[in-house]
Design brief:
The complex is a heterodimer of chains A (150) and B (161). Chain A is mostly helical and 150 residues long. Chain A contains five helices and no strands. The longest helix of chain A is centred in the N-terminal third of the chain and has 29 residues. The relative contact order of chain B is 0.17. The chains are: A mainly alpha (150), B alpha/beta (161).
């Protein structure tokens, strides 16, 4: 019974995380120049590197999101979900601590007119982080297609 | 042996595929962006009377020349830094629309404007210059040395210092 509940929680986490990451990636993939500005606004990366990150990160979000929903390479996908959310939490926290008032760039590429960062953004990312750990530490590989457990 | 069975292999696979797709899609995109953001070209000799729209970085010598010619300076730093000390006559930063309103009370969008921030690494001046360019300003100069370089000289300043 307990295992049953657990596998539903894992599946639900996979669907939520997958949906969120796919949704978050689309606007950024379409507008890398805008997203690069949003990344630059955080002032954590050395000048120049924001373009590279703005090109690569949205695709990583999309791939990881698809993998979680389709049930393939779940271990790798959940590790990256955890890794990305730790980076996001760090970037947002340091911006808040330094009093930089900026747009999140989380779900929209726009460096202006979206949703500003705040404590709620960090709490949301902590929640995603927890779901990432739930998926990574799952006991059963229910509705997973590759790699299959023996 | 099954491919990508180990979590680490899967993680590396995702990273490599993301890099390939990100860099590859940019290559085929009509409005591709440079892989590394470009620094603004520094100019030492600028003709203010030219009709061409410009966004250039300038040296301290050029900045001083503009200062002497009465070009408007814009401080891109936070209020606290501005109050502490700024280039004499420089305008205080504000929300973009308010800032544009303040600038347009003094001059048109086609008049020259020098933007600066704390030091060569701060980046705020460049960000603001790009924002202003998007809003239709045509003669923008980023004084990269900023407050750090200016305040080391005996050039005119205002503020608490």
């Amino acid at each position: 019974m307990r295992q049953d509940i657990e596998k539903y929680i894992v599946l639900l986490s996979r669907i939520i995380l997958g949906g969120v990451f796919i949704y978050a990636s689309l606007d950024k993939i379409a507008n890398p120049a805008e997203f690069a500005k949003a990344v630059g606004n955080y002032h954590v990366l050395p000048f120049g590197v924001e373009n590279l990150l703005a090109l690569i990160l949205p695709w990583m979000e999309l791939l990881v999101g698809l993998a979680l929903i389709l049930g393939v390479l779940i271990d790798g996908a959940s590790i990256l979900v955890i890794f990305m959310n730790i980076i996001f939490i760090f970037a947002i926290s340091q911006a808040l601590a330094r009093g930089i008032s900026i747009e999140c760039g989380c779900f929209s590429a726009k460096p202006e007119g979206g949703s500003p960062i705040g404590i709620q953004t960090i709490l949301r990312d902590i929640w995603y982080l927890v779901m990432g750990f739930v998926v990574l530490n799952r006991k059963s590989k229910w509705i997973e297609f590759y790699p299959k457990s023996i | 042996m099954l491919l990508l069975k180990k979590p680490l292999e899967q993680t590396i696979f995702f990273i490599l595929l993301s890099i390939a797709l990100g860099v590859g899609s940019n290559f085929f995109r009509s409005e591709s962006i440079p892989l590394l953001a470009q620094e603004l070209a520094v100019s030492d000799n600028v003709d203010l009377n030219s009709e061409e729209p410009v966004l250039l970085a300038i040296s301290i010598d050029q900045a001083k020349e503009f200062f002497d010619e009465g070009v408007l300076f814009l401080d891109a730093r936070d209020d606290a830094y501005y109050d502490e000390g700024h280039i004499k006559g420089a305008m205080k930063n504000a929300f973009l629309m308010e800032l544009i309103f303040n600038i347009e009370e003094k001059q048109t969008k086609n008049d020259p404007l020098v933007v600066y921030c704390g030091d060569p690494g701060c980046g705020d001046s460049e960000d603001l210059a790009y924002d202003l360019q998007n809003e239709g300003f045509t003669k923008l100069f980023v004084f990269k040395g900023g407050w750090l370089e200016w305040s080391k000289t005996n050039y005119p300043i205002s503020g608490k210092r």
